[in-house]
Amino acid sequence: MWNRGAYLVQGLGHCGSCHTPRGVGFQEKALDESGSAYLSGAPIDNWFAANLTGAPNAGLGRWSEPDVAQFLKRGANRHATAFGSMVSVVNHSTQALTDGDVTAIARYLKSLPAAGEAPAALYRYMPDATQALLGRPANDPGAKVYNAYCLHCHGADGRGYAPLLAPLAGNPNVLAANPSSLINVTLNGSDVLVIDGVPSAYPMPAFSNVLNDRQIADALTFVRAGWNNGAPAVQASDVAKSRKATAASR
Ligand code: HEC
Ligand code: HEC
Asked: Is residue 223 a contact partner of residue 182, using CB atoms and an 8 Å limit?
């Protein structure tokens, strides 16, 4: 089972082409589990392809084998939802794999030791402080934007309505050091997941024409700090850069 998973992950159109960081010559830093950078997460086309190692917060450390298998078959699970370039991977490829094959991939990925994340305390869900801020948003500019534009889908408790609407509390993409995916998905929304021919009912909307760089940075800073996520603030200058870099695709 492990060997089959390794073969599928490393084979044609392999997962590492997006998920493994690249070196100065644009070469993938590792092609299999013998290299410590392997599948440890990488920036690609203004997205950040998530850490797929056992890293406890930004990686798959808190996901079970069935969680990983469900994500590849359905594009969503209780932790996260596919967006960005991962949507076409699920739409055109992994949902068509057999249950045996997605389980083999999950078994293999779950065997990868933690890499690519600075040591940190294991994430633990804490709703209270964040929910209090949402009750008096004037005290926090990010809470104000979240209240008006994000809360009805992602919830005051940050748990969304998984797997339909992505949770933001404890979500590995939200906890990752690199915020490119969060900025890009908030500016440009997500391509629609189509599972068994049925498009997702409430995809993430684009806010590039609705919110300015500062408002998006504030909302994401609020999300990164909220529910005990403990991830660093997002800068308006990074939102401006992504807005410019992704303008052509809008
Ligand atoms: C074209 C680039 C690309 C390829 C190829 C790709 N991915 Fe991804 N993947 C991404 C991006 C970008 C994200 C972050 C957005 C998201 O979570 O959906 C992601 C997210 C994920 C996640 C969710 C992680 C999390 O913490 O939310 C899993 C699991 C995953 N990919 C597995 C795979 C596997 C297994 C393969 C190979 C079969 C693969 N990916 C191939 C781009 C890619
Ligand atoms: C109409 C419902 C809706 C609204 C409103 C909405 N989102 Fe989303 N959001 C989604 C869905 C659904 C996803 C999962 C990707 C997909 O399926 O399109 C998502 C994904 C995300 C993600 C990536 C989560 C992951 O899985 O890693 C972030 C970050 C995010 N939204 C932030 C925001 C912010 C910030 C706002 C407010 C400015 C907002 N969203 C408003 C529905 C919504």
From this structure: yes
Ligand 2 site-directed mutation target among 62, 153, 180, 221, most atoms within 8 Å of CB: 153
Respond yes or no on whether the N-terminal peptide bond of residue 163 is cis (omega within 30° of 0): yes
The answer, yes or no, to whether the previous bond of 113 is cis (omega within 30 of 0) is no
Measured distance CA(250)–CA(242) in Å, rounded: 12
Instruction: Name the nearest CA neighbour of 170 among 129, 123, 218.
Output: 123
Q: List, for residues 198-229, the tens digit of each pLDDT value.
A: 999 889 999 999 999 999 999 999 999 999 99
How far does the centroid of ligand 1 lie from the alpha carbon of residue 135, in Å?
35
User: Which residue in the block uniquely carries the two structure tokens 């104000």?
Assistant: 144
**Token digits of residue 246:** 């992704």
Q: Which of 164, 7, 6, 138 is nearest to 75 (CA)?
A: 164
pLDDT number for residue 164:
86
The tens digit of pLDDT for each residue in 34-46 reads 999 999 999 999 9
Cβ-count burial of 199 within 10 angstroms (0-12 exposed, 13-18 middle, 19+ buried)?
exposed
What pLDDT is recorded for position 119? 85
- Among residues 219, 229, 238, 211, the alpha carbon closest in space to that of 141 is found at 219
Q: The tokens of 54 are what?
A: 């056992």
